[in-house]
Prior knowledge:
The chain is mainly α. The chain contains ten helices and no strands. α3 (60-82) packs across α5 and α5 runs parallel beside α9 (183-199).
Amino acid sequence: MAHCEQVPTAVRTVDSVLTRMRALDAALPHRDGVAVFNRVYLAVTEAVDRHIEDGRFADPRAAIALDVRFAERFLDAVDAADRDRRPPACWRPVFQFRRHPGVRPLQFALAGINAHIGHDLALAVVDTCRTLGCEPVDLEDEFDRVGDLLVSLEERVRDELMPGPDLLQIADPLTHLLGSWSLDRAREATWTAARALWALRRLPDVAREYTERLDAAVGFAGRMLLTPLPD
C-alpha cells in the first residue's frame, strides 16, 4: 500500500481535540443530547489515541491527521451552534432536540454517530488527503481501523443505553426505530462518498452540490432517529 507523502502540515494533535471534548463533557448537562454523543465520541478518540501510541496503525501520521480532521468537524458544529450560526444539516437535529424529554440517550448517541460517520468522515478523508498530499486509497487502512473501533463502541453503547430488560426490548418502539439504521452500511456509503468527492475535486460546483445533498440526506436520517418516543 502506498503511504501519504511526508509533507509539512499544521494539523493539530489528538491531545488538542481530546482537551476540547473533555471540556465539553465537564460543561454540558449529563442528559443534554450533545453531551451524550460527546461522551461516546470521547471514548472513541481516546481509543484511537491509545492505538496510535501502541503502534497499531501502519502510518501513525496519517492516522493522527485523519482523527484530528474528523474530530474538528464535530467540534466546529458545536462552535457554530454556540455562536448562533447554523451547523451542517446533518447535525441540526441533534442540536434542535438536544433537550427534548421524549428523546432517549441512545437516540442521541446514534444520531450523532450517523451525522459524524455519514457526513463528517467523508469530508475528513478529503481534508486529510489535501493536507498530506495523498489519495483516499492511501488512508483506507486508517479508515477501516477507526471504523472498527466505532463498530465495537456502537455495540457497547446499544447494550448500555438500551432501556428495559432484554425480554421486553422487542416490544419497545426504540428497538424498531434503531433497527432501521446500520453503522456498517453507513461506513460503506461514506467510503464511496469520500472517493466520489476526491474524484470531483476539480469540479468544485459539482462537488459542492454533492456535499450539500449528502449533508441533507444524513440530516434526514438523523431526524428520524430522534423521533420522540413514549416512556
